[in-house]
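Onboarding guide, step 5: your first structure request.
Type a short instruction followed by the sequence, for example:

Predict the 3D structure of this protein.
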Amino acid sequence: MRGQHRRMTPQLVTLTEQAEVFPLYQHPGTEFLYMLSGVMAYGHGRAVYVLEPGDALQFDGEASHGPVELIKLPIRFLSVTAIGAVHDPA
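The system replies with structure tokens like these:
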């Protein structure tokens, strides 16, 4: 499905510096992460996942989520957020 009923937003994220406070995100839709380099612990709700190159994670964007620990820098990952209908009701 295309147009106003479905929107996908890809982002290439690069983290190069340690931070003590990580922002947590919440948004409608589904998010997909694919790790390209580095290692990080990524939180979603109460769960924490250690992600390494080649790992993928898909989750509901409405739960609080974001990096909780940057383990091996630099970190690069692809984030794709999909908002809207996932099927054609016709």
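Each response can be followed by summary notes, for example: The CA atoms of residues 40 and 70 lie 5 Å apart.
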